[in-house]
What we know:
The complex is a heterodimer of chains A (526) and B (484).
Chain A (H helix, E strand, L loop, with lengths): L3 H16 L7 H24 L9 E9 L4 E7 L1 H20 L8 H20 L3 H10 L1 H11 L4 H34 L6 H5 L7 H17 L8 H8 L2 H26 L1 H27 L4 H22 L2 H32 L10 H4 L1 H15 L5 H16 L1 H26 L16 H19 L2 H21 L7 H4 L21
Antiparallel strand pairs in A: 1-2
Helix pairs in contact in A: 1-2, 1-4, 2-3, 2-4, 3-4, 3-11, 3-14, 3-19, 3-20, 4-5, 4-6, 4-11, 5-7, 6-7, 7-9, 7-10, 9-11, 9-12, 10-11, 10-13, 11-13, 11-14, 11-20, 12-13, 12-18, 13-14, 13-17, 13-18, 14-16, 14-17, 14-19, 14-20, 16-18, 16-19, 17-18, 17-19
Chain B lengths: L14 H18 L6 H21 L5 E3 L4 E3 L1 H28 L3 H20 L3 H19 L6 H32 L4 H8 L6 H17 L8 H8 L2 H26 L4 H24 L4 H22 L3 H30 L12 H4 L1 H15 L5 H15 L3 H27 L13 H19 L2 H11 L5
Antiparallel strand pairs in B: 1-2
Amino acid sequence: MTALLSAVTFVPMLGGLALVFVPRRRAGLLKTSALLIALLVFALSLPLYFGFDGDSADFQFEEQRVWMPTLGVSYHVGIDGISLLLVLLTTFLTPLALASAWHAIEDRLKEFVITVLVLETGMLGVFVSLDLFLFYVFWEAMLIPMYFIIGVWGGANRVYAAVKFVLYTLAGSLLMLVAILALYYRHGAATGAYTFDLVTLARWVVAPGLAQDLMFLAFALAFAIKVPLFPFHTWLPDAHVEAPTAGSVILAGVLLKMGTYGFLRFCLPLFPDASLAFGPFVVALAVVGIVYGAWVSTVQADVKKLVAYSSVSHLGFVMLGIFTLTQQGLVGGVIQMVNHGLSTGALFLMVGMIYERRHTRLIADFGGLWKVVPAFSALFLIVVLSSLGLPGLNGFVGEFLILVGAFGVSPRLAAVATTGIIFAAVYLLWMYQRVIFGEITHEENRALPDLSPREWAVLVPVVVFIVWIGVYPTTFTGKTEATLEALIAQVQSKSAAPRVSLAERGRGASESGHPPSAAASRTPLP
Amino acid sequence: MTPLSMPPVAIGPLAPVLIVLGAAGLVLLLDLLPRPVGRELIATVALAGLVGALLATLARWGKPGRAFQDMLVLDDFALFANVVICYAAALVVMLSIDYLGRNGPETGEYYALVLFSTGGMMLLAAAGDLIVLFLALELMSLSLYVLAGLFKRELAASEASMKYFILGAFATSFLLYGIALIYGATGTTNLDRIAAAAAGRAHDPLLVIGLGLLLVGFGFKISSVPFHMWAPDVYQGAPTSVTALIATGSKAAALAALIRVLVTALRGSQPDWAVLLWVVAAITMTVGNVVAIAQSNLKRLLAYSSIAHVGYMLIGVVAGGSAGPGAVLFYLLTYAFTTAGAFGVLTLCERAQAEAVEVGDYAGLARRHPVLAAALGLFLLSLVGIPPLAGFVGKFYLFAAAVRAGYLWLAVIGVVNSAVAAYYYLRVVVFMYMREPEGAGARLVPSFAGGLALAIALIGIVLLGVIPAPFADLAQAAVAPLLR
């Protein structure tokens, strides 16, 4: 099937548009068909995994069609080891998000399911685009459905959060548009081929210097806001807290990954010199974000806000892993993107479930839930442990690899980053203790119902993958290692001489004269 | 005594304009009939005239013609502008059927004036001589002055008309003075001959001052800062359908004429006007967008937004080459579809609720009229420049032209402005979708013509956004004859 990737990308939107014709009062039919469409998309995306050759670093399932020939824009899609995992994460989380909203969303349900499905197309489009113009179209278009999800179905302060989300993201990405155009004309002037095709552009490199630095910064700003990298994170707590559960799940699970994905897909291969030059700054910001996110999480009174700030910390780990530019760091970063999607997605799902029961998210309003809702508490424990990186669950794998990579670059920074894991244990376990253990302090909590079959069905798949990645990550890392190895090689070979790897730079001025050893970044995985 | 020799008269290039003016005459005659005919019939005649002109324009595509000793140049550039103008005017006529039903009895004059101004716009875009340019500008403007004040009973309309007229006349005199100085410097008013005469003496003081005065006159017509003061008051006071015509058709015509004059006649002074317009573009978009944030009246908001959009389009004029003007032409097309659509929704809402022009009046529109709210939402998102809608592609071509010509910072100012603009457009969306309605609004059922107009505009912005290439390439090709 040559159009499989396009099918996966556009079936959600087409399905959503078809739902326009379902009458508004048939709520059950709307919900069911939306869920079935999302499940169908997940089923369609499975052959992508099984048909993907993990030993190859090339783009697979490629499709290319003429779109705007005079401008050099084509409809070019394809996936490699990085985007494969993110596409699967998207198709996996969307049905769960829809199912989580089964009772939570009643007002304007029709618009809601259509918006979620259109959003899925936007997100998938971002991950599969291999043309800068196409990528930009999806990147911007996806903002609007998310804006509506937060702004229409969100909490009390939803309008503020929604507008802030859009303006932040738009401000960053519009500068990226200028950088895209600058890259396009520079490439065209240098090679004679005016094209937005990423594969072609990535074979060429802008001369190192101010131009490349500025382009890198424009791209990096757009992605850093999305990640969000400290100090561009201030939109995130607002958006997360105000968004409905389904919105938070998608926001944390998929949208934030677009930022980190952007760094991997565009910044590193297109601007290798600038990536190396600015790498230490990004790493520093990532570490600040790790620690800051963890500290701020600790003092939150609202569970959802706590989870939101924990995202800043976790995404800091991903950025740290990516910009170590070592094999372990990158593999850890990519797998941590998936982990964060699963763990934080599940945390938001469970916060949503408890909110549906009690209509509060304040930690102080709970306590002693274990006696009332044991099944919920047990699953919550697994998810919390996964999020704080307990060995045997998924979070550990990613964070361990990232720290191994980071240690090679700068032991000091790695040590600081490690405190982030310790604080993660503090804020998550302390929260868990106050919510679940102890005596029941509020009478309203005595009669809470435990998990319904629908909620079981939503949570169990996530928990399965949490354990799976924790025990046998090779199922997933195996598909991505070749791609990342090629990416590192590409960055190293394209950047101008002297080819000092980031690892060498981090070791201080006294050692910088030594010849770089590529072996440091090629050690096999544990 | 030598026999009086008649100059050759080529009617062909005049055909589109003649059709429009003929329809205008017919509308006037129908209005004079002793037994009054229905306003629908009059509107239909007007619409038929515009569609006829559109078809005549399309039929002449690729067959450039000149008439009256190069007074009129109907090349592809003028044809493209004519398409935009005819489309905008046709849409306005279709929307007016609904709008006039509530607001005004002056049916005959209204449609005749719309057609006369449309004829002026088409001539303006095709003017090959500064005198024709001036005449066409006056034909267009005088009709619009009257149209703005047509609803005599409304104080705001009279104020708008008066303001428009006085400031307009003032600006036109600047334009005329500029024409006089350029004539003094070059001895001709023909654009091509001006270019030839001006070659090599770009710094002739007469020419430079003439250019400056010309830019003042045009600046007023396209409402660029600092000559934009009239726009908000006129947009607010004029009947909404007329506002739509001012915002789309007259702007398209004036920009087309500006490009033609600058690129053909004054190409020698390119460094001078490029610098000047660089500054004007930057200030225009910034002022338009920043002031729009503070507006609570939707018509005023769209007025400032249209000022900002002129700023974007001036980026293309500054960028020059073939890419710049081509991008402006394409942008005019996308802008006409989008703005006419947005004003179209406004006319419908205004018809139903006495004066629904405050942003607050649109609270909860999505609940009362999901389809209208979705339509206005899409038009606004296109104005923001969200892909895959027309507005995005239009901006993309403009910024691309700027980056290509090396005006990187102008492009950066443009994108920063786009981000600012998102705030006030989205504010309207916030009211429509995220606020609850106050009280029960009236039911709103657009007439067939009004609904059709909105549908055309919607299809237009989606089509231009998803497959822009053919249209954008046509726009680029249309500019080629100017750059000979």
